[in-house]
């Protein structure tokens, strides 16, 4: 089953206060956000969505109209409806989709898998994933590279119950789209705590930076639309290649990552 | 002249597209944001604002109504109109007003002044402050403390032209309200770049943390309502006491500082 079909398997909630067209809209935005839908693949047609969800034609039409008006998608005569280029820049895409981000910078993303196995979850991992202590989790440790040069180091923990089948090959692409496919867990949001650290020998060597050099250490929890934590990870970003920009005005704070391969 | 009077000296712009009630509203929100107006001092009366700005009664009333409706201020019968408690939590207050932030945590803020003098601006300082190279600037280096314990280290540069009179005593209170008073520069926004660093001996000693321990280093530029840079600073926040939380969902990113004296 492809990712798009998997994502549409879960029915919409007709008892919710949120109108159905808005629920459908959010579902599609999530697919865009996680990179499952991109500029190259047409969205499901209005007809197929009417069928899949048993929705009225007007509901689906309203959803598509809103997405077009907001600039998220555009209709291409005779070809279908496609994600607009800038819509791939949604906040959560940038956070969760390393490959898209690197490609947007006109570089080639790759991964070096350092560790890939299942372990029994420790008390702290179990607590953060909201699973029973000792339940199986994937432990995936990867260096992510841009044009062959190390950019960051991630250690991820994913409940095997959510994603029973995972191969090293899957990790070359997006881990998240693989999770979505198997679990219907559509990434909806993530929470990150940023620390500053000085790198130990192991991490420094993997990242090809001097021992003791400064880095950001990020603890991330990723939640799906039903607010289940489907992954936690620890991300090490060396300060030589990462900074972030915070703009504050009277009532808003903007946060932006700056990635510097210079 | 007190800060409130100073802030109202600059006339509103009757040629602007922005309605006068909205301009007045923004002016008042800035005073709240910078801590010049707080829960303890009543706002100027509607009558006095009508006079000061030569505005119609309806304009001032509309501004106050909006501020009340938005929960920024509340009317206290027989006493006047006061800032609501939570409104003092505006984004820019938290960024620029160390003392308010520490007091909100039920601790006592203080400062240790390490350096306080005027220097000729270097090329890089001049460029960042948009002034001529060699123009005089205040260089102010302070350790900021909470309950007597060092929390962060700031090195600030302020053009003396904007704030000719400044004493070491002024620094005990808010530097920003002193700048507002002398220059009519109302802080409106700031931009910060966050780096991770490992502390050198000097900074580590001032902050009472081990040499080489990790910290955030923040380059900040603060702008007034006319988009003039009125201050730049370098802020060192040891990782042992500071972290950041970033929450990302489909189309929004929230950034929050976490301050941990534990």
TrEMBL record, chains A, B:
Membrane-spanning residues: none
Molecular-function GO terms, alphabetical: DNA binding; DNA-binding transcription factor activity
Protein name per UniProt: GntR family transcriptional regulator
Signal peptide boundaries: none
Biological processes per GO annotation: negative regulation of DNA-templated transcription
UniProt entry tagged with the keyword Manganese: no
Top-level taxonomic group: Bacteria
Residues annotated as domain HTH gntR-type: 18-86
InterPro entries with a match to the protein in the record: Bact_HTH_transcr_reg, Chorismate_lyase_/UTRA_dom_sf, Tscrpt_reg_HTH_GntR, UTRA, WH-like_DNA-bd_sf, WH_DNA-bd_sf
Originating organism: Bifidobacterium tibiigranuli
Keyword Transcription regulation: yes
Keywords annotated in UniProt: DNA-binding, Transcription, Transcription regulation
């Amino acid at each position: 089953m492809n990712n798009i079909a998997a994502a549409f398997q879960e029915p919409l909630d007709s008892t919710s206060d949120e109108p159905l067209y808005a629920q459908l809209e959010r579902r599609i935005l999530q697919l865009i956000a996680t990179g499952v839908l991109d500029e190259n693949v047409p969205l499901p047609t209005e007809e197929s969505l009417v069928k899949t969800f048993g929705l009225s034609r007007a509901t689906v039409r309203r959803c598509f109209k809103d997405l077009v008006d907001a600039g998220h998608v555009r209709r291409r005569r005779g070809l279908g409806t496609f994600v607009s280029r800038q819509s791939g820049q949604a906040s959560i895409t940038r956070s969760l989709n390393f490959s898209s981000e690197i490609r947007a910078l006109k570089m080639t993303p790759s991964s070096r898998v350092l560790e890939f196995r299942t372990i029994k979850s420790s008390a702290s991992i179990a607590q953060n994933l909201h699973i029973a202590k000792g339940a199986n989790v994937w432990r995936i440790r990867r260096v992510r590279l841009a044009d062959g040069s190390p950019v960051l180091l991630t250690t991820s923990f994913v409940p095997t119950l959510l994603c029973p089948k995972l191969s090293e090959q899957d990790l070359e692409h997006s881990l998240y789209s693989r999770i979505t496919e198997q679990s219907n867990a559509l990434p909806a949001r993530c929470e990150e705590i940023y620390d500053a650290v000085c790198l130990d020998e192991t991490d420094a060597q993997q990242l090809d930076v001097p021992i003791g050099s400064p880095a950001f250490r990020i603890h991330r929890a990723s939640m799906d639309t039903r607010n289940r934590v489907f992954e936690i990870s620890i991300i090490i970003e060396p300060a030589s290649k990462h900074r972030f920009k915070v703009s504050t005005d009277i009532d808003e704070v903007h946060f932006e990552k700056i990635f510097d391969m210079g």
